[in-house]
Amino acid sequence: MTKNHENYKELVWRLAKTDFKLRYHASVLGYIWVILKPLLMFTIINFVFSSIFNVVGSGNQYYPLELLTALLLFQFFAEATTTGMMSLVSKAQLVTKIYIPRWTIVLGSTMNALFIYAMNLIVLACFFIIYHKMPTLTGVLMFITYSIILYVLAVAFSFLTAPFFVRFRDLGNIWDVLLQVLMYSAPIVYPLSLMPDKFQHLMLLNPFAFLIHFSKQALISDTFTTLEHFALLIVGIIFAVIISFLIFRKYERTVAELI
Question: Model's pTM, two decimal places?
Fold first, then answer.
């Protein structure tokens, strides 16, 4: 059992590394795109909301830090869920030619997003230095915790959707639209405090919005959610992972026939 466990870990690691290397292999700028893409998006949105809508003028001097933190989390989640959902189709040769556990393919694809996110966190740290903002140790640890929970949520989504994407390729287009809805329905380009109190509570019922908001709060304001709310989040995520994996195991058997 231990030997199989180690073999699976090695397989997932190799799949993730291969995806990461191949993604930027033929591009001129190569791995620079990992950092350049979120920075370009950050520059545009920061200009619009800081200069035109004057969000910073409302008293939030750390709005650029909040925006960059939220954008990196969003890009991380979007990348992990999209590649995870499409993983079985994009790795069709592995699915049809040889037998390897299907879940390793899905997990390996989501880990590619984890590598990109880790590289972008270096950029985020540089911005905190530029703005002379030093997060507390507790804040950093909670931010890491929320990032892990967000990744687990992305993995659960991937297990749920990967076998269905084999049957319904329109799921990719639907998810692209829903990601845009998710971006503007969560406190990413705007602080949660700009919303009326009654809407704030409703927005935080969304686990994604909850994680985005309290990740920013942990790093910048050193404020955290209550233990009760955090426990409910953990229970909900565990439940989502179990259900999604059971559904994945049920439908993975017919994947090779449909690709």
Answer: 0.88
